[in-house]
Amino acid sequence: MKISANSSKSVAKRIMLSSLFAGIFFASTAMADTLRVIADTDLKTVDPIVTTSGTTLVHAYLIYDKLFEFDKDGIARPQLADKVDTSADKKSYTITLRKGLKFSDGGPITTDDVLQSLKRWASRDQTGQLLAARLKEMTKVDDLTFRVELSQPFDVPAALAGITGNPAFIMPKRVASLPPTDQLTDTTGSGPYKFDYSSWKPGQTRVYTKNPNYIPRNDPPSFFAGKKEATFDKIEMSYVPDANTAMAEMLTGQQDIWPGPPMDNALALKGNPDLVVAKGFFTQGLYVLNHVVPPFDNVKAREALTYLIDQAEINRAAVGDQEFWHTCYAFLTCEGTYGDESAYSGHRGAADFEKAKKLLEEAGYDGKPIVVLDPTDWSEAHARALYMAQQLRKAGAQVDLQAMDWSTLTSRRTSKAPTSEGGWNLFPNIMEGQPASSPLTHLMLASNCDKAWFGWPCDKKIEDLRAAFISAADQNEKKKIARELQARASTYLPFIMTGENTAAVVYRADIEGFNPETAEVYFWNIRRKSK
């Protein structure tokens, strides 16, 4: 439940007193060697190929590494890869691994592991599927080298460096040989930390320990690229669903980093000398729609939703402080290279309930309850779920608002069943700003039917434009195609935009090296200043 800023400040003042007594206990050496993080939601799935859940990705970035990673300038840099030789026509890539790399169990990382990992990745990830559609063959040269041959030009390093979705993490061949629909139970990894799956249970604090077999790069760290050093012996991630409890734990030194606090709580902690309240990554707010069951299988019903949304109103309710949000009608974001609000031909401004009601009628809406999934443990999304339920009712629709935690929602969203049999119609979500800014990496813009992200939008024109964007020869051509794509999206409506906002992140002032502005938070290269 969202609480007011005044009540948060009152809680903060009361808790400040207890922090004086807690300080002695929490200054122990054991605490100094352990980084403690409040998880945004409970971890239910450990396999980053089975799900695109951000909670699973935070887990995965601790225990896996990739062949390439993006630096601060958006350039894909070698990570587990040592070098890449690219043909002039960008149809052939020869990639060589760094020597001496090992998995967390001590086994060597070889080409066989990489090829099987990429095969599993490409069968699930949106960008991986684009690569697979252009792939002639991917062959082993030797134990450390493989070659990718393509039928069309494609930026393979950028595809392999993708941050969100189902990133191309490298796993042992035996693990990556699992079907991409089967969740793994072997968490042997290639990254800076390791995780004991056998001792973990959902709902419990999860523990990561330093991987002694990991060999960091020597390059300076830059965003996700470069040196990844496991500076803490142990990382503990706790799911604390109550915001006031989480705030108390930050104030008393029991936790070091709180990546996803409700805005009211974050603002109440401003001014505390022991804490830093920073802006996190920017995101595109949106509603995910189910395109395979009524009523949103009909474009007029999808259009009706645009007439129910006042972006200023919904962001005041969901985000609050205007410093952290702005309206935006660009499907590729207003912050990104290719975003173009002028391409949007749909409704803007205040809600129009009569127009929405008329469009629902034209879509053949039969009065059955519209199922809105409501993630109550994610305050921003919870507010958006409540907002949409209210707006739909004002337009004369029946609504079944179903409360659940986010982890449960990520299981429910896989269903294509009718709503009467456990299916769903819509839920609130976000798309991280950097991947949302490109047709190559925007998960929810992809409209390739059964292979699309949950909601399964299906539009050949969007897919043709995405393919043309990937093959475009220069930046001017890419921008032209991106504009056409956004114009098409504004009439097809694969998802419904709610504006853009920046999350708040809270961390202790003695933590350095932490980057709060990343799409998926990571915890390497972080130090405690007293160490």
How would you characterize the overall build of this protein?
This protein is of the alpha+beta class. 31% of the residues lie in helices and 20% in strands. The chain has 17 helices and 19 strands. It has helices spanning 5-26, 29-32, 54-63, 111-122, 126-133, 156-160, 173-176, 243-251, 263-268, 299-306, 311-318, 353-362, 379-394, 406-412, 433-436, 460-471, 475-492; strands spanning 34-39, 68-70, 76-78, 81-86, 92-97, 135-142, 145-150, 193-195, 206-210, 234-239, 257-258, 275-289, 325-326, 370-375, 399-404, 426-432, 495-508, 511-512, 527-528. The strands form six sheets. Strands 11, 12, 13, 16 and 17 form a five-stranded antiparallel beta sheet that branches. Strands 1-10-9-8 form a four-stranded mixed beta sheet. Strand 2 and strand 3 form a beta hairpin. Helix 10 (299-306) runs antiparallel to helix 12 and helix 11 crosses helix 13 (379-394).
